[in-house]
Every structure is written in C-alpha cells, then in structure tokens.
C-alpha cells in the first residue's frame, strides 16, 4: 500500500539511517525538532462535502480517495501532509481506463463547470497537482488504471503505453519482450510515462538513452475540442514538431492519453563504478572532458567536496565507507575529495573499450581508482539509487528537513553558478540564526554544459508555520540565484506552481505570451490546472 503522507510504498526496502548520520546532522545544523504527525483519520475528517452536484460512474467523492490525490511530493506538500493542514482537496477523483473515458470526463467537466487536474504518479515536487478551492469545483483525473503496454512495434522499436504506467511496470513489460526504455529518474518507482512527457523528465542514464524528448515518439492528447493525434514519425521537416508542444506542457493544453516511446534491446552488460578525485577542479575537468570527448558512458554523476563528505556520513554501509576512507587517504585524497560515479552500458566489448578510455582519463586527472572496491560502491549505488527519497521521511522523524533544487548552465558557468547557488541557500536563514547545509553534484552532463543538482538540509522550525516560512525564504533565495546565473528554472522537475513566477525570466515576455496563446486555444475557459506553468490570470 502506498504511503498517504510521505514517499514510497509500505514494505519497500529503505536505506539505513545510522547513528553516524544523526551525529553528523546534529553537528552540522543543530539538534532536530521532532513534531507530531497527523493521522489519516484526522485529515479525512476535515474533508468537506463535494461541491460537484452531479454524479458520474467514473467519479468518486470518497473522503480518503480525495485526500490521497490532494498533494504531491513538494516541500509544502510534505508540511501539509505531516501537519494535517491541507487547506484544499479535490472535490472528486475520476479513474478512467481508456482515452475515450478521459474525453467523456472532460465533457462532464465542461458541462458541470469544473476545473480539471491530471494526476499521474503524484510525484510532483513543484505543485502540479494541488487543488485550490477558490472558484470552480475541482475534478482530479487519475491515470492509475491506464498502465498497460498497448503495443510494441519490434521492427520500428516503438512501444505504446497507457499514460499512467509507472517506471517499474514500463520496464517489466518491455523486459519480458527483450527491450528497455532506459528512462530512470530518481522518482522511477512511482512516476509515470505520461508524467515524464508532461514535465520534460530526465533519467539518470540519459547519456546513453536520451532525455524524454529523445524517447517520446508520439501519442494522443485529449483536449476540450477533441483528440490531437501526434504521429510517431522518425523525423520531419513539415513545420514545427507537435511533440515539442506536448513535451513540458504540464497539463495546460490537454491530457495525455497515450504515449509512444522509442525503445532499445536490453543491454548485454552494464557496470557502475566509483572513483575519487583530490578536489573539485579535477573532478569537474574529468566530467567535462569525458562528456565532450563523447566517451560511451551511460551516466556520470560528479559530487563536489561538501556533498561527498555528506554522502559518507549519511550512507548506511559504515564498514565499507570506513574501508574506502582509509584507502583513499593512503592514496593522497583526503579533505575536499570528490566522488564521481559513472556507468558503462552495452555489449561486453564496448564496455571493456570504454572502461579503458575512461581509465586513461582518470589517470590524467589524478583520480584515485578503487578497483574492485569501486565496482562494489557502484553496485551499492545502483541497488539504492531509487531508495534515497525514503531518507526524507527518516530525516523528518528525526526533526530535520531536506529538499532539492536543480538547474542547468553552460560549462563556462558551471563552477561559479554552483558556488553562487550554494551560498544563497546556505545564507538564506542566517538572519533567523539557523544554519542550512547545502551541497551539490552534476547529475546530468551534456557537450554544452551540465545540470547542477543541489540538496539542502535544515532543522524543522518551532512549528509547521515556521518551517514552511523558512522553506519559502530558501526557495526564493535559490531561485533568484538561478535566475541571476542565467540558468534554467528547472532542468528536470518541471515548472508547476512553485516555479511559475520565475518562468518569464527564462522565456521572456513574448515567449510567455506565445505559451498563453496556446493555452487559450486548447483551453479557452482555463479549466486545466490553472496556475501551473503559467501563473493564473486575474
């Protein structure tokens, strides 16, 4: 059963939260403040009667169903779920099983004068799915019953999925036929293929498989005026690509009812390896050159010194970490060391060849290879790469908050931007007498530049109101730092409501008008997720 007020599902294997981790947090940001958590029963008792008068066979007005579809995974969502102060709930939740039923529900919404929120995996971290009970009643349309592999054209290597298919079901259904999509965002366990397209998602192994824009081949978009079919053509010069209009649209133009994606044969061999560099200059140079030389890596993640230290303290495998620390110190890398994890995927011969090329580059930048130990660390990372979000709940129970932000910039701006963003976050609560611990890594690399993925920790406030106010201060400081650096306001999480105020800095006045014109065209009554992507008009 999926947790109603945190990340993941009951019974899932979780990282171990150690005494070392607790001591590190106390030393770094102070003694945690533990708060009581609201119960599901308490929250369900707050749900007011639905404002939707008419009934529909696909629509549920049950209180618990409405609670479970009211929030995502953003920090304000967590504060709401833990405190029990939700504020708003959808008036009803619909569970269609076919594109035709989605169309039927959209007709119902127009007839009953409702706003509509598409709901995929409920993993949004920027406020995509939160209802606002001001104005029209809200109908949330969940894709959780549309999870099948509908077709696999093996000759063309194009697969067609229901939009609510979560990552594990995508890969399980493809793997049974000998294929993979290879799209692995950290939200892989719960996020859906339709949500990946709607939010322009990026997977951890995008160096090999591509971001979702390279994988999205076509599909269907349900609008209030009919179905927009997006043909799965390999390439076209016939005007602007309609796929680009759907990618990143976040539900503003219509509801994705079918997704066609480009798949590949399952790889024969795959390995992940950890290596350490003496400082950030070496780690950065290695990451940039490996990428721009187009070495056949499937992923590369480079942590700065602050993050590397935090990872060592928060990791669950203390014996292995102590062994690694000793070995690395003997090899001359100690304070300020930076960990890089890279993956190689493909045929056995390709993996061996790439590993040889990477090894020469590691030697060039004085990297500390771990040999068998490095591969062991890589296996631990691979096994636990979708489990890190579970730590958020353990941290909260211990009295601490954690959140992330990300952007991407050109290589020439990467180092100064990382420093500026970390400094803005770390100093955001200085006037409150609170310390924020911020650290970063490059999560995705490109020939032109890189993403910057920053994590920050702080202790909870005296109450939930103070905690949320502190987060807003950090979020504003971080977002303005991103804008001043010329970075994108979102590299992979989408815009939602939280980032919408900053989108004009990136798109410009004319660009925002163009997006608003598209929204007005497909949704003249502005029923679809008002305030998401584009700020709500007065």
Describe the structure.
α4 packs antiparallel against α18 and α17 (411-426) runs antiparallel to α18. The strands form four sheets. The chain has a seven-stranded antiparallel β-sheet, sandwiched between helices. It has a five-stranded antiparallel β-sheet with strand order 5-6-10-8-9. It has 19 helices and 18 strands. It is an alpha+beta fold and 538 residues long. Among the domains are: 46-142, Uridine Diphospho-n-acetylenolpyruvylglucosamine Reductase, domain 2 (2-Layer Sandwich); 149-265, 2-Layer Sandwich (Uridine Diphospho-n-acetylenolpyruvylglucosamine Reductase, domain 3), CATH 3.30.465; 269-385, Alpha-Beta Plaits (2-Layer Sandwich), CATH 3.30.70; 499-538. The mean pLDDT is 94. The protein has helices at 19-29, 40-44, 63-68, 75-83, 99-111, 167-175, 193-198, 206-209, 212-215, 242-246, 280-292, 305-314, 318-330, 348-364, 372-384, 391-397, 411-426, 464-485, 503-522, and strands spanning 59-60, 92-94, 115-119, 138-142, 149-153, 158-161, 179-180, 216-223, 226-230, 255-262, 264-265, 269-277, 299-303, 338-346, 368-369, 400-410, 437-442, 449-459. Keywords: FAD, Flavoprotein.
Short description:
This protein has 538 residues and is of the alpha+beta class. The protein contains 19 helices and 18 strands. Strand 8 (216-223) and strand 9 form a beta hairpin.
Features:
alpha+beta; flavoprotein; 19 helices; FAD-bd_PCMH-like_sf; Alpha-Beta Plaits; FAD-binding oxidoreductase; Uridine Diphospho-n-acetylenolpyruvylglucosamine Reductase, domain 3; 5-stranded antiparallel sheet; Uridine Diphospho-n-acetylenolpyruvylglucosamine Reductase, domain 2; FAD-bd_PCMH_sub2; 538 residues; Oxid_FAD_bind_N
């Amino acid at each position: 059963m999926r947790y109603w007020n945190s990340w993941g599902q009951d019974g899932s294997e979780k990282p171990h939260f150690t005494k070392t981790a607790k001591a590190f947090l106390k030393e770094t940001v102070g003694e945690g403040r533990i708060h009581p958590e609201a119960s599901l029963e308490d929250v369900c008792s707050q749900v007011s009667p639905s404002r939707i008068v008419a009934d529909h066979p696909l629509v549920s007005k049950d209180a618990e169903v409405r609670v479970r579809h009211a929030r995502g995974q953003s920090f304000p969502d967590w504060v709401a779920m833990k405190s029990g102060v939700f504020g708003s709930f959808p008036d009803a939740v619909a569970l269609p099983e076919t594109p035709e039923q989605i169309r039927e529900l959209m007709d119902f919404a127009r007839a009953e004068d409702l706003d509509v929120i598409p709901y995929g995996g409920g993993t949004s971290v920027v406020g995509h799915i939160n209802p606002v009970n001001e104005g029209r009643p809200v109908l949330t349309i969940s894709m959780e019953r549309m999870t099948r592999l509908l077709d696999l054209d093996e000759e063309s290597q194009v697969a067609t999925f229901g939009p609510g298919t979560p990552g594990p079901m995508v890969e399980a259904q493809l793997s049974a036929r000998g294929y993979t999509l290879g799209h692995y965002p950290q939200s892989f366990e719960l996020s859906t293929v339709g949500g990946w397209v709607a939010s322009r998602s990026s997977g951890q192994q995008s160096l090999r498989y591509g971001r979702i824009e390279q994988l999205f081949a076509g599909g269907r978009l349900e609008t209030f005026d009919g179905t927009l079919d997006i043909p799965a053509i390999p390439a076209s010069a016939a005007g602007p690509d309609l796929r680009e209009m759907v990618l990143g649209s976040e539900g503003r133009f219509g509801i994705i009812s079918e997704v066609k994606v480009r798949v590949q044969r399952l790889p024969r061999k795959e390995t992940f390896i950890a290596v350490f560099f003496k400082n950030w200059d070496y780690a950065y140079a290695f990451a940039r050159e490996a990428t721009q030389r187009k070495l056949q890596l499937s992923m590369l993640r480079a942590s700065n010194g602050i993050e590397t230290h935090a990872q060592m303290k928060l990791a669950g495998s203390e014996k292995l970490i102590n062994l690694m620390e000793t070995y690395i110190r003997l090899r001359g890398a100690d304070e300020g060391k930076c960990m890089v994890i890279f993956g190689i995927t493909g045929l056995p011969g390709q993996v061996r060849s790439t590993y040889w090329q990477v090894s020469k580059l590691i030697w060039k930048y004085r990297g500390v290879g771990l040999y068998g130990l490095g591969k062991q660390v890589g296996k631990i990372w691979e096994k636990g790469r979708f489990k890190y979000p579970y730590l958020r709940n353990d941290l909260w129970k211990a009295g601490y908050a954690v959140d992330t932000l990300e952007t991407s910039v050109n290589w020439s701006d990467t180092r100064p931007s990382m420093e500026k963003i970390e400094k803005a976050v770390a100093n955001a609560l200085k006037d409150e007498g609170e310390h924020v611990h911020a650290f970063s890594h490059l999560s995705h690399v490109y020939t032109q530049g890189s993403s910057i993925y920053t994590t920050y920790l702080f202790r909870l406030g005296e109450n939930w109101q103070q905690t949320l106010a502190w987060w807003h201060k950090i979020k504003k400081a971080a977002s303005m730092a991103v804008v001043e650096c010329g970075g994108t306001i979102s590299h992979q999480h989408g815009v939602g409501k939280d980032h919408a105020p900053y989108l004009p800095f990136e798109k410009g006045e004319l660009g925002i008008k163009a997006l608003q014109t598209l929204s007005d065209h497909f949704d003249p009554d502005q029923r679809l997720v008002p305030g998401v992507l584009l700020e709500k008009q007065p």
